[in-house]
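Following the same procedure, backbone shapes were mapped to integers, yielding the entry below.
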Amino acid sequence: MRSLLWSLWSCAALLLSDVLATYHLRAGDPQLIAAQSYAQTRNNGRPPARNLNPSKTDSQCRSRPMDLVFIIDSSRSVRPGEFEKVKTFLAHMVDTLDVGSEGTRVAVVNYASTVKIEFLLKHHFNKPDLKKAISRIEPLAAGTMTGLAIKTAMNEAFTEQSGARPRSKNISKVAIIVTDGRPQDQVEEVSAAARASGIEIYAVGVDRADMRSLQQMASIPLEDHVFYVETYGVIEKLTAKFRETLCGLDPCAMGHDCDHICVNSNVSFYCKCRNGYVLNADRKTCSLKQAKAELVEDPCKCEARLAFQKQTQVALQQLTAKLADVSGRIERLENMVGRV
């Protein structure tokens, strides 16, 4: 009789452990939370695959934020029609940039024997206004004081008072010089000073431009910063080259480790979480703010899981009732054995 009772207890214990083992996904359980997070990720789309080829994803290609100053030669050697082509080149360049107060700011320094700042970095923060300002530029004629133009750009155009961002913001400072002649002043020392102050210099030579002077002005490596075209008629072809040179991929489009949302901050990115989640200490992954009982109501409405949980609850209740019944019978049997 006692062996029979032991067998009954063993079977009941095994059955109870099996049921409890299957019914372990309660509200707040990490596995349930992970399942819900996966379902939400599936419904909200996966992050884009990493792609480092701008030609294949042109919409992802954007100019890096810059303080950009064009320094253009309008000396007598540049004919009126040729100067119009320079202005067209500038307008096309503007079209390739992410112009804005938080993006790329543009200024133009016009020079011949004198220097004139046509407009500053703080003046125009949209493309239509920039292109209108460019269209109004007139040639100055006379000599070619390139060194003076570089010095003026460094001391007057690239200042915070003129709209340049402070050094702490790590915004690139770029000068693009367009000239067709030999400078009538010294350019080597003033260009070195400009580069030392953090200005990246590109030198574009046209027709009779002096290659040695271009190399003295430009940043290194020279093969990336010195350009030459035979005539102003083909200068527009440099637009594509500069687009490639100044192009920067959206950091989020390149691929990221954010659990939920990647936010582009121009020079980098940071992660955010969807509503109801908080960013973890690693600044990448997200966790639920609170694991409440209602989390069982799965956002993806997995009816099969909910039905299984309800069935398991019923089975557990039935088993509890049976165990109570068995316990009563055992107690009665023990009383009978005692009387015998």
The chain is about 40% helix and 20% strand. Confidence is low (pLDDT under 50) at residues 14-61. The two ends are 12 Å apart (CA to CA).
